[in-house]
From TrEMBL:
InterPro entries in UniProt: LMW_PTPase, Ptyr_pPase, Ptyr_pPase_sf, Tyr_Pase_low_mol_wt_mml, Tyr_phospatase_low_mol_wt
Hydrolase found in the keyword field: yes
Keywords: Cytoplasm, Hydrolase, Protein phosphatase
Residues in Phosphotyrosine protein phosphatase I domain copies: 4-151
Primary localization: cytoplasm
Cell compartments where the protein resides: Cytoplasm
GO molecular function annotations of the record: acid phosphatase activity; non-membrane spanning protein tyrosine phosphatase activity
Protein name as it appears in the record: Low molecular weight phosphotyrosine protein phosphatase
CDD domains in UniProt: LMWPTP
Catalytic activity line of the entry: O-phospho-L-tyrosyl-[protein] + H2O = L-tyrosyl-[protein] + phosphate
Keyword Cytoplasm listed: yes
Length: 155
């Protein structure tokens, strides 16, 4: 069983959370830590269940050498005990997760941005904006990934 399980969460699970999942998986693989982690992503809403990640999100990952393979799903009650960490993208996601959490949940729920060394706590939804938002998200996810791994004792 993996030492640490991590679920990344945004609203629809097609832009930010699959990007965070892909960046985290790629970083973990590059560091030879894949066996140490169970990594997935999900959305608080069911809008896009079964859909591939947004093409702009996937392309941003690919142009940075990060493969993306994911189908959108909604957070389930089991996720709150299956995962050690549920890392979401903004305050609204965190509020929704806390509302969805069943009694006796064990996951630590935080905003992924709390790990950003630049102090950029919110990973903004880029869906309705220009490409720059996806590039910004990628940079944030990369910084947060490194800092989160460091917080877990991985250099």
């Amino acid at each position: 069983m993996p030492a640490t399980s991590v679920l990344f969460v945004c609203l629809g699970n097609i832009c930010r959370s699959p990007m965070a999942e892909a960046v985290f998986k790629h970083t973990v693989e590059k560091r030879g830590l894949s066996a140490e982690f169970d990594i997935d992503s999900a959305g608080t809403a069911s809008y896009h269940v079964g859909a591939s990640p947004d093409a702009r999100s996937a392309e941003t990952c690919r142009k940075n050498g990060v493969p993306v393979k994911h189908r959108a799903r909604q957070v389930s009650a089991d996720d709150f005990t299956k995962y050690d960490y549920i890392l979401c993208m903004d305050e609204e996601n965190l509020r929704d997760l806390k509302d969805m959490a069943p009694k006796g949940y064990t996951a630590t729920m935080k905003m992924f941005g709390t790990f950003d060394p630049k102090g950029d706590r919110i990973i903004k939804d880029p869906y309705y904006g220009p490409q720059g938002g996806f590039d910004r998200n990628f940079a944030q996810c990369s910084r947060c990934t490194d800092a989160f791994l460091e917080s877990l004792g991985y250099e």
